Structures are given as structure tokens and as C-alpha cells.
């Protein structure tokens, strides 16, 4: 797997330090709100784990499996909910935890759905932001790292369900996904 990586963008240590920094800001902003950390599967799993370990306020953890990629390297623009959350969000403060914000399609639909269901507030914390890929107007409130327009894997991010277990974020060599 490591041989398929063109360049390492972020190390484990950099990501964990940024997660701790973001967690402290979330603690301040949500000190008395008992927020729900809503991880979007599967990519958010390592990052949500890092965040929640560093948060010293009451939080609940929930997951949704939502996709607009369907196995490729580019968003299809069609969002599918494969697993919905198990709790009511009515009156709750929701923090969507993402591995990467790229086109914005998926988040736009999830945010609209949560607001429709009566969430008191909905914000986004993302490990990576790729604004050059944005098609929907949006900017996450909490951003770990802004990255260039490149196909990245590792630390939860995948290509065809592989590479999620790399301990860093790296740019995947084009020949891997162009075949």
C-alpha cells in the first residue's frame, strides 16, 4: 500500500495534534450544549475517535453512512443514505464529523435533512477541506487542514474501500486509479 502513495501530506502526529486543537475549540463552543458528534461513515472513524478522546464535555456519538462517490474517485452528485442515525435530533446541537469536504454535495444534503428534522444547530468539523473541489457553496466552521485538489487516501480516506488503514494522509499515485 505504501508504494502506491505519491506523497505524504499529513502525518499521524500532525492529524492528532490538530484533532486535539479542534476538540478544545469545540469544548468551548459547546460547553453547556451536550452535542451529538455525528460521524459520516466510514472515513470519519479515525478522526472522530481522535476528537472525542480529547473532548472533556458530555457528548453523544452517532453515525450515518452517506455516500456520493459509489466506488469512484469523483462525486456522482447523487447522495444515498445507507445507514441513518438512531436518535432524534430535534432540539439537539449536531456536529457533523467528516474526513474530507470536497464537492459539498453530501454535506449539503445531510445538513438540510438534520435541519428538517429539527436540529437546534448543525455545524461541521472536518479533518480535511478541499475548497478547489467545491461545487456547493459551503464552508465548514471547523477545519483541520486545507489541502490541494488531489486524490488523497489514508486515515479513514479510501479508494475503492482500500487504504483507509494507512496511518497518514497521502496522495494516491494516478496509475493506481486510472487503470
TrEMBL record:
EC number(s) from the headed UniProt entry: 2.4.2.8
Protein name: Hypoxanthine phosphoribosyltransferase
Pathway: Purine metabolism; GMP biosynthesis via salvage pathway; GMP from guanine: step 1/1; Purine metabolism; IMP biosynthesis via salvage pathway; IMP from hypoxanthine: step 1/1
GO CC, any one term: cytosol
PANTHER family: HYPOXANTHINE PHOSPHORIBOSYLTRANSFERASE, HYPOXANTHINE-GUANINE PHOSPHORIBOSYLTRANSFERASE
Subcellular location, record wording: Cytoplasm
Family classification: Belongs to the purine/pyrimidine phosphoribosyltransferase family.
Catalytic activity: GMP + diphosphate = guanine + 5-phospho-alpha-D-ribose 1-diphosphate; IMP + diphosphate = hypoxanthine + 5-phospho-alpha-D-ribose 1-diphosphate
Upper classification of the organism: Bacteria, Bacillati, Bacillota, Erysipelotrichia, Erysipelotrichales
Cofactor(s) essential for the protein: Mg(2+)
Amino acid at each position: 500500500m505504501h508504494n502506491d502513495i505519491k506523497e505524504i501530506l499529513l502525518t499521524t502526529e500532525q492529524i492528532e495534534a490538530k484533532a486535539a486543537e479542534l476538540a478544545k475549540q469545540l469544548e468551548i463552543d459547546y460547553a453547556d450544549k451536550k452535542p451529538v458528534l455525528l460521524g459520516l461513515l466510514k472515513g470519519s472513524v479515525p478522526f472522530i475517535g481522535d476528537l472525542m478522546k480529547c473532548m472533556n464535555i458530555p457528548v453523544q456519538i452517532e453515525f450515518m453512512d452517506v455516500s456520493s462517490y459509489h466506488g469512484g474517485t469523483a462525486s456522482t452528485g447523487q447522495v444515498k443514505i445507507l445507514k441513518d442515525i438512531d436518535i432524534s435530533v430535534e432540539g439537539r446541537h449536531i456536529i457533523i464529523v467528516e474526513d474530507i469536504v470536497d464537492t459539498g454535495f453530501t454535506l449539503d444534503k445531510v445538513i438540510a435533512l438534520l435541519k428538517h428534522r429539527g436540529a437546534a444547530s448543525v455545524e461541521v468539523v472536518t479533518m480535511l477541506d478541499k475548497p478547489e473541489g467545491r461545487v456547493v457553496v459551503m464552508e465548514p466552521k471547523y477545519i483541520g487542514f486545507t489541502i490541494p485538489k488531489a486524490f488523497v487516501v489514508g486515515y479513514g480516506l479510501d479508494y475503492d474501500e482500500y487504504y483507509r488503514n494507512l496511518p497518514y494522509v497521502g496522495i494516491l499515485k494516478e496509475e493506481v486509479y486510472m487503470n
